[in-house]
TrEMBL record:
Similarity-based family: Belongs to the mitochondrial carrier (TC 2.A.29) family.
InterPro entries reported for this sequence: MCP, MCP_dom_sf, MCP_transmembrane, Mito_Metabolite_Transporter
UniProt name for this protein: Uncharacterized protein
The UniProt record lists the keyword Transmembrane: yes
Single GO MF descriptor: amino acid transmembrane transporter activity
Membrane topology according to the record: Multi-pass membrane protein
Protein origin, superkingdom: Eukaryota
GO cellular component, one term: mitochondrial inner membrane
Coiled-coil portions: none
Residues spanning the membrane: none
Subcellular location, record wording: Mitochondrion inner membrane
Gene3D superfamilies cross-referenced by the UniProt entry: Mitochondrial carrier domain (1.50.40.10)
GO BP: mitochondrial transmembrane transport
């Protein structure tokens, strides 16, 4: 993600809608990878009498293949409705609020290039604010994705996204919709900032290489770089967030972190790293390319600095 500058003739509502559409489109294209990532993150070591049994899900392609074989292709899009809810709210707000927050931080009279640390701070704030509002959609999405194949005759916990919202409130209380909010705020704020800074730096580095221009191919490479950097930083928080949302037995964030570390070791926090990178890298590429085109349609001028 770069320093997105809305032109003077585009409103906050237009920026929000452009960003929300691009985020939803990227979500639809990449959610099978996210489903695989969630299954890998929630998978725990199981012990048989003779030792450790083999895990059910192994690797990105293996997980995708297992889900498709056992549950059907449609299972790879489990949670898509809640995912679209999330991206419409979170994706629209984090980008739509970025420019106003950044301008507020530097002041209306500021002239020149905005310092990198101000961009990072603005992205941290917008990521945190957006996910506070969107957390219920994230919770429902993870709950639906986490549910695997059930025995014949056994109904699922939820009939769909809307049923999940009402069921969670009825059975667990309204506050349950904000389960995992702490690690979710940390994850999204950090990843949002990582994407902002790394996209800009990777893009500028690529543009210094002879033969490269500010083209779609450059945006693809920069998006992959941003995704990789964001996953390296955010994966441990993402695992804790997914586990807290998928399993209500944890007391709090610290309890989930300690139990995971004690029972499975430090590498457990990087479970699903490759599908997470595949998901976040491809998500960034699709989202930014789509956003640029949608803004061109709306304003006739979409650009990155």
């Amino acid at each position: 993600m770069a320093d997105l500058k809305p032109s003077s003739d585009i409103s906050f509502v237009e920026i929000f809608l452009c960003s929300a559409f691009a985020a939803c489109f990227a979500e639809f294209c990449t959610i099978p990878l996210d489903t695989a990532k969630v299954r890998l993150q929630l998978q725990r070591k199981t012990f048989a009498s003779e030792g450790v049994s083999l895990p059910k899900y192994r690797g990105l392609l293996g997980t995708v293949a297992t889900i498709a074989r056992e549950e059907g292709l449609a299972a790879l899009w489990k949670g898509i409705t809640a995912g679209l809810h999330r991206q419409f709210i979170y994706g629209g707000l984090r980008i739509g609020l970025y420019e106003p927050v950044k301008s507020f931080l530097v002041g209306s009279d500021f002239v020149g290039d905005i310092p990198l640390y101000q961009k990072i701070l603005a992205a941290l704030l917008t990521g945190a604010m957006a996910i506070v509002i969107a957390n219920p959609t994230d919770l429902v999405k993870v709950r639906l994705q986490a549910e695997g194949k059930l025995p014949a005759g056994v109904p699922g916990r939820y009939a769909g996204a809307l049923d999940a919202y009402f069921t969670i409130v009825r059975q667990e209380g309204l506050g349950a919709l904000w389960t995992g909010l702490g690690p979710n705020i940390a994850r999204n704020a950090i990843i949002n900032a990582a994407e902002l800074a790394s996209y800009d730096e990777v893009k500028q580095t690529i543009l210094q290489i002879p033969g490269f221009t500010d083209s779609a191919f450059t945006h693809v490479l920069a998006g992959l770089g941003a995704g990789f950097f964001a996953v390296c930083i955010g994966s441990p928080i993402d695992v804790v967030k997914s586990r807290m949302m998928g399993d209500s037995s944890y007391k709090n964030t610290v309890d989930c972190f300690i139990k995971t570390l004690k029972n499975e070791g430090i590498l457990a926090f990087y479970k699903g790293f490759l599908p997470n990178f595949g998901r976040l890298g491809s998500w960034n590429v699709v989202m930014f390319l789509t956003l640029e085109q949608v803004k061109k349609i709306v304003t006739g001028q979409a650009y990155y600095d």
